[in-house]
Write a structure and sequence with these properties.
By secondary structure, the protein is of the alpha/beta class. About 30% of the residues lie in helices and about 25% in strands. The chain contains nine helices and 13 strands.
Length: about 250
């Protein structure tokens, strides 16, 4: 069977994968992916062959997966979170045009916006958007426009890849942009290592967020004008109370 599963493994812990994702990995002969993500599932699937590549080797990783699939192997390309949200699903389909014999099946997973939101409370109950601050594949000028537009439209904003060693000030820059349209006391939340050892969550204001350290394992949530802090949780009301008052 020539087949590639593109599997979203969620936060990474085996107990937080979907049943469908776990079955796909169990069915596979080969598990491929970025080495950090493969290591999250390696111990749960002994006897499998593993293919890993470092960051920035995504095309090479996909080609290796297709070459294995062409040997009548079932291959799983694992992605953190969801395979279709900043994951490998799109690139697999693009490269798959050269391998029409290989069946492709995308297995959805729980992306960090959802698992992080659950950790913080309920920040995404109303309209929200996801923006990655990584400018590796997207020019910063375009990212800046997206941040400004989302802030002006009063979206709850979830930021992926908020900072790295080479982009240590990007979260600060994003906060400065949002402060043009959002209040300084806008409720925000930060999660790190979701579902893994060292899991963290914090709730703060947008001003405090500006000076908060972050890395590639951090997911950031910026509330809208209605978002509140309820105890130690971050909640964005959907408007049920307002609806009841008008009825």
């Amino acid at each position: 069977m020539k087949k590639i599963y593109v599997v979203g493994i969620g936060p990474g812990a085996s107990g937080q994968m979907t049943i469908r994702a776990a079955k796909a990995l169990a069915e596979s002969d080969v598990i491929a992916g970025y080495h950090v993500y493969v290591d999250l599932v390696r111990n749960d699937y002994p006897g499998k062959r593993f293919i890993t590549t470092p960051m920035k080797k995504e095309e090479e990783r996909c080609l290796l997966a297709f070459e294995e699939a062409m040997k009548d192997q079932v291959v799983s390309m694992v992605c953190s979170g969801d395979a279709g949200v900043y994951g490998m699903a799109g690139l697999i389909y693009e490269i798959g045009q050269s391998y029409p014999q290989v069946e492709i099946c995308v297995i959805p997973g729980v992306t960090a916006a959802l698992s992080g939101a659950a950790l913080l409370g309920a920040p995404l109950i109303h309209d929200f958007c996801l923006i990655s601050l990584s400018d590796l594949l997207t020019p910063w000028e375009k990212i800046e426009k997206r941040i400004l537009s989302a802030a002006e439209a009063d979206f709850v904003i979830c930021l992926y890849n908020p900072a790295s060693r080479k982009r240590s000030d990007y979260l600060q820059k994003a906060c400065d942009l949002m402060l043009k349209y959002k209040r300084e006391d806008t409720i925000c939340g930060v999660t790190r290592n979701i579902g893994r050892d060292g899991e963290e969550r914090r709730i703060m204001t947008l001003t405090e967020l500006r000076d908060t350290p972050a890395d590639m394992f951090t997911t950031v949530f910026i509330g809208n004008s209605e978002t509140v802090r309820l105890g130690d949780r971050m909640v964005t009301p959907r408007g049920y109370q307002n609806k009841n008052r008008t009825e």
